[in-house]
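User: two proteins, same treatment. go.

Assistant:
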Amino acid sequence: MYNVCDVVSDNALSALVQQVKAHVKNGSSGVGFAVHNDNSLDQLSSSCMRHLLELRSKTEKPFTTATMFDSMLSYLQDISTIQHDFEQHAMPVASKANAQMVWNALICRMFDDATMQQVQEWLYISLYCLSRLIKTHSSEMGHLLQGFTELTNYEDDASCEDTESDVFAIYEQISRDSNAMSSFVSAFIHSCKLLVEIRALAYLQITIKQAVDRIIEDKVQSHAQQWEVPCLEAICAEMSNIATMLDALLPPPTQSHLKYVEDQVYTQFAQLRVHELFGIIIDYPDSKAAIDDLRLCVQRHRSMYKIAYSLRASIQERLLHPGATTSDILTQYISAIRCLRLLDPSSTMLEIVARPIREYLRTRDNTVSCIVQDMVSEESGLFEDMANQTSDTSAVNGRAEGVVFDEDCSQPWEPLPVEAKTIYKTAQRRDADVLSLLVSIYDTQDIFVDEFEAYLAKQLLNSVDFDTEREIKQVEMMKLRFGAEALERCEVMLKDVADSKRIWHNANTNEADNAYSTLVISRQFWQQQQQQTATNEQFVLPPQMSYVRDRFAKTFEALRPARKLDWRDSQSLLDICIEVQGRSIKVNDVRPAQAAVLFAFQETPRMSLHEVAQVMESSEDFVLPRVRFWQTRGVLREAGNVFETVEVSPDDVADDNRAQDMVSNSDEEEEEEAGPPEADAQSEALRMHFNYIVGMLTNFGPLPLDRIHSMLGMFIPGDTTTPDELRAFLTQMVREDQLDMSGGMYKLK
């Protein structure tokens, strides 16, 4: 039905009355009676219309307080009184059917837009108060509504309704005592009966639905951002009580209110959760309850394609851009895989959403390294997935792309949708597990094996105690994923460490030797060492260091006569304790070349750069960065054209160094150096980028390491700094009191 009250004018109403009288005169109604006065019905209807319009003009003030319920009841009672008078006076001049036709026209004119709006506001506030009273006073409301509806009990801990609204204030007035509550319920029931009695219900169907829609919207929006607990069932139970009551008091002509309410709840709730889906995926698995609710909506309305394309657009806008780190993108992608497979076991939605993510990840240089880091990090979900693999997973080695099928899916099997045939490129990817989907971003798994080999080599080279328990576990898990043959190099690396530990025990015969450990590696099996050339600048070790090294070499050659050691000073590390005028300075992770400079000054406390180079039998370009290394730590200082050991306090040395801008000079010399990627050289080279880092922290505030690394790659194309090298440099800046670090975030002092 449509509201045509603005269309029915006084002339049209008079014309309708004339048609009724003509209809009666012709006798076509089948009911014969004498019309005593042709103008009686016309005059009666006009008089009735005037009374109705006068009544409407008196009630045009909006209802805003708890008294609105009594006001609406009084308003409807007055209309009912006019109706009874009209029917009583119409009885002598027209049949009952004709009188009803005229009355319907009068009511149509009576309920104009303003009146409809008032009725909608009254009904909305009434339903709001009823729903809250049913939830908070279930036993009392069950007694008051007995005979009209059977209330459904439910629990809803996630609702967060607006307690500051005017409607809530009205509810509080009603819920203060049982008398006010009983009066409200009685007024509402009586008003509904009067709406049916005055035959206004046919013109109010849209108004009723609009009021119900507002209630549903309030209930749904009150559960926004509530992802930890299920919400849909509570909303449906709450609204079913309202719908059942409306079906009893204001019966619709066609579809029941209960069916309409169920459809609207699922529709509006699905719209809310789809709008929040990006955030729900970020919070997974804490938001699993929200995914379960959304799955029920998807199953009811079959709207998974619309949801998938909406989520894909949101991800492209909010995630796939240079400001997001690769680690964040991968984390979101992994959560999306798990969430969308709960929503759609056929994985069709996942394929729609994942395609732009996979394409974008292929353009990132550090995607493979980030995936491998997640695979070996014990805090990540990928590590748990790999650790939970059984020996049956080894059967994957014969499958393309290392695909492992997900056997944890508890959803019943469903055939692949017809639309999915044009979406999927391979049938395997539909049931592949998370790690297999990540590996399949690229056409081959070899790049992941190579990256893991580089990671393993770095971990083993940095280990000084030959403890490889963690690395052995990682290799075994990778073998289950990629096969034993692909991890042969890693097996050799672990064997080299075990052999080195045995040789080290045989070579070290006294306590002093135990402070010196040596890792002997097979160069052809260590990828990182193959990429490094042997053209490094040479220097002579001091006797204190060469003595221990030569003795170990003799022991090794005695045990392995067919092999010869090639020392790699760029990978060697020392811990040194320096005594300067009664104070002790401990420096860790010192390179042999840096230690050789210190030993040279131990023999001669004052030397020029040329003299230091002669002692070490090396070039000045090679020696200068090593001298600067000790200068920045307050052990050496520059006096004219010579360097000397410090004889004053470290604070004075630091002030003197800052005054002469020694760190800046070290940067310029380090930039000209050629050689292996040593830690100190890399740290000095990174000082060139420090201005970029300062700019980032100034503009964006505290930043984590991965964000700084990602933005450096944007600002300095071709930069090859690894996250570990950047971390070491930032740690040095913290030690030099130029940066602060708190909670994994770096910030300016």
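Protein 2:
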Amino acid sequence: MQLLKLKVVLAAISATAFSVDMGEIQSKLDSELLWGTYRPNLYFGTRPRVPNSLLSGLIWFGLDDQRNWQKTRHSCELGDNLSEYGYSRHNGRDFGEQKMVDTDQGVEITSTFIKIPGSGGGSWAVRFTGATQNVQGASLAYYFGLEGNGTMSMTITKRMARITGQTPDLGRFRIRIVPAKNNTSPPLHPALESVVGVPAPVKISGVGMSVPHIWKAKDQFQDKIFKQARMQAGNILQQTGGQGPLTGSVLFQLENEGLKDPDSNLFFAQMMVHGDFAFDVIYERIGDDAIKSRDIAAIASNRRKDFDRRFEDVFGLQAKGFSNDQVEMAQKAISSLIGGIGYFHGSSLVSNEPKPEYGEAELTSEPELTKPYSLFAGVPSRPFFPRGFLWDEGFHLLLLSRWDVDLSMDIIRSWYGAMDNNGWIAREQILGEEARSKVPVEFQVQYPNFANPPTLLFAVKALVERLEPSSMMGMADQLAQVYSEQGQRDAETEQTLIREYLLDLLLKSQRQLEFFTSTQTGEPLPGSTRRGYRWRGRTPDHTLTSGIDDYPRARPPSVRELHVDLLAWVTYMLTVHAELSAYIGKELNQTKDQTLEENLQLLDELHWNQEKNMYCDRTVRIRDDFDELEDDESEAEEAVYVCHKGYISLFPMLLGLLPPDSEKLGYILDMIEDPDELWTEYGIRSLSKSDEFYAQDRIENKLIASTANCAPT
């Protein structure tokens, strides 16, 4: 029934008269999404979706302890122990706000980001408001750094910092960093008023420097203030007979330097604040309308109301009876997801050879850096995994595609753009030195024989399911985005965009399918000629490539294993791929083992355990009763089931591969609803409570993983 519905939908789309220029549509989308909070590894940072371009970020530290400069906040770090950070509202387009509570440093900061449409990506602004909750106050700094070609210069006045510059991709731009008029500087200790060389309190100061790596801005900032603090401390102690005092606001205040140096490509604007504070950062493309500080609050207020209204229109939580606190929690959940979207560019470290397994010869060649490429993707964790993960992205997009179809389509397009000629997509996208700095060396190399579940197809299938002809106009109305002068595109444009997208996706999906069938096949079991599938990348305790990292598998590991979840994934790919192929009339290059019907039969033949009434992995072992002296060696091996009730045994059902009248479905549902097996009030256990490995110190099997609990059926 589901496949038939898809055929009807695509046929209806096919019958539409298409007159929209797809290149123009994509160009408008690229402009709309050019700028954003696309540095999710930072507490706050912006960049354009352009490689080697203009980066910006926020830096702060408290002044009570002179050692706090060593704990300068910049990138999201678990060790910073922030009480709170993360977006409370973020629409993925032109508005996002978050609160950062740094109790250890005595600072609270709220960032409110807005964007204004215009040529070449438009203009944007962010307002920072907050308060210090300590004695001495805090040092706040905002920086802009230019990678690649271009020029910048900075001027400092009593009221603001100004930066002007140009790059080949962004054109000419101007930037203002404007402290609020009522900002208060930390008080100067009376004993320091007569000390020569102690800087007078100022609202803003700046420094420019020439550096090779903008992503190391925090290191450059710390190096600068440390050298200055050491020099200032010596001056104060000399003039006061060693009495001081050495206060942070005096030691660490930058003096204007390097602002007009033509080689400077990194500029910091610093503000020493005490009590309540605010400052604006405004980026404008020259030629577009200026953003006035006095308008930021009103624009943000309207965007906030629009977000709340649209959130209710899309998800309807208030109408369903959820409380205000529950709605707020849900808004934070999707906003944190959207605030975790980033643009990444750089080289990936890839092996030229498959990684050896189980006693095979070690690799003889060193891994090499690929040519630089870009990825637009969400991250699973801003502090711990601030990079793209293929497995996680499909689950991200299940939610994101309900909120913003175009944004999710652009992310899918970007992931498939990272595919090589063999159909391989690295499961972990560690692009560039900044990304590699967060990853232990032993995990940096990506191997071309390591697959990862094709969860991107979740979002594709969910998208198609929302394309019923009767709902097409409603879907276009819901989007309310950028494809017409009125800020909203029509149904014809929406249909055209999605149809062209699906046509392009088919070719890439087929290439990915061919990668799975050529690299992940397993060996036939004894007495059989039928081949299943086996995840490469197994270790005794983990199968990271499967996405279910430490789910119990065969012990010991063997190249003779067959994994039920991988066969289910390949079959799931076929269900989506076959229907798209039928729609455009493209013949699949299939062998017998690649046909959908064959794979459905293979799931039962290889993996259904009649005795335990469940799907299981398989492996090969030496028979217990084998006698080396008397028995034929060809009969030494036997195929056995590796059964652990949990997510792996549910995959054929989770991926919608079982027909509603399957008798196996009843056994699976019985397992799920049994509280002694998988059922809890909070979701399905990843591993049965009765399993010998349950609740051991492992990654996945003691958790109720949100991914499998939201998998589509």
